[in-house]
Specification:
Helix content is 29%, strand content 26%. The protein is of the alpha/beta class. α3 links the parallel β6 and β7. α4 packs across α5. The chain binds ribose-5-phosphate. The site of ribose-5-phosphate has 14 residues, from β13 and α6.
Length: 299
């Protein structure tokens, strides 16, 4: 039977698109807060015997994870055959070790929590730095899809003579793939993070590519300090203003305004998190990934 797809708050558009692309049915649910801030969840469609999918935006997850757990657990309790999560942006991946004595390795605890209530999960470009795969921390079937081909297609369509720039060594994994697929050179900088809102980025040696259009590519833009510092280094070496591409438009605090203030040529993100910079559509990537890879939906 076709999957039954529910949308958590802010996810109706993506859930509609996935239902269309996956020949799924759209489920209706009511989700609201009581006056004291506690969450209310009600599934309005019969889930019994169905493969149920919840599409969830988990940026700023502390406000959202309990409501998701209530909805998913209710679907299981009411007889759903399987329950999976489509989480285009997977939070809590950056605290992947104990940097200081006594710190919580929150990526592990978050993974343990999600694994306790869902059967499977699909996400896009989780921040895999010290982990090589989600399987290291998730006990459920967890698939990560890559936005690199979509970013490459956007660049190939819009930019002549691109020069890909990665702000730190972790970015090599997506910058090198994008550069190869658009046939462009790339350079990776060194980043030194000094605090939540303070980073230093090295200056690129770009003497061979002065006539190119620099394109910064990173997975997450949060405070945007990484992008802002990198834009600064690019300006110092006399390149034209860069295009900033991020997979996930987290944009914490005043990050977006601060990034616009350093005047990049453009700011472009994938619509894994709804934001006015979204220019790269991920619905087909998700639908194909779910249908190709989730074993629960193959039976
Ligand atoms: C971490 O290394 C990530 O890849 C990003 O570079 C980082 O999350 C960006 O954070 P911010 O925008 O706060 O500098």
């Amino acid at each position: 039977m076709n999957p039954l797809i529910f949308a958590m708050p802010d996810c109706d558009q993506l859930a509609d698109r996935l239902a269309g692309l996956m020949a799924g049915d759209r489920g209706l649910m009511e989700m609201r807060r009581f006056p004291d801030g506690e969450s209310y969840a009600r599934l309005m469609d019969d889930v019994s015997g169905r493969n149920v999918v919840f599409v969830a935006s988990l940026v700023r997850p502390d406000d959202k994870i309990l409501a998701l757990m209530f909805a998913v657990s209710t679907a299981r309790e009411l007889g759903a055959k399987t329950v999976g999560l489509v989480v285009p942006y997977l939070p809590y991946m950056r605290q992947d070790r104990r940097f200081h004595e006594g710190e919580a390795i929150t990526s592990r605890w978050f993974a343990r929590l999600v694994s306790s209530f869902a059967d499977w999960m699909v996400t896009i470009d989780p921040h895999l730095h010290r982990y090589h795969s989600l399987d290291e921390i998730y006990d459920i079937e967890a698939h990560s899809l890559r936005a690199a081909p979509l970013i490459s297609a956007w660049i190939a369509d819009k930019v002549e003579k691109p020069l890909l720039v990665g702000p730190d060594t972790e970015s090599t994994q997506w910058v090198s793939v994008v550069a190869e697929s658009v046939g462009a050179p790339f350079t990776i900088l060194e980043k030194n993070r000094k605090g939540d809102r303070e980073v230093e980025v090295s200056r690129p040696d770009v003497s061979a590519w002065k006539d190119h259009t620099p394109i910064l590519v990173d997975d997450i833009i949060s405070t945007a300090r990484t992008m802002i510092e990198t834009v600064g280094r690019i300006q110092e070496v006399g390149l034209r203003p860069p295009i900033c591409i991020g997979v996930h438009a987290v944009f914490a605090e005043q990050g977006y305004e601060a990034l616009k203030a350093v005047k990049p040529a453009d700011i472009v993100t994938c619509n894994t998190i709804a934001h006015e910079t979204n220019a790269i559509e991920v619905a087909e990537l998700l639908a194909d990934g779910i249908l190709d890879r989730v074993s629960f939906l193959k039976h």
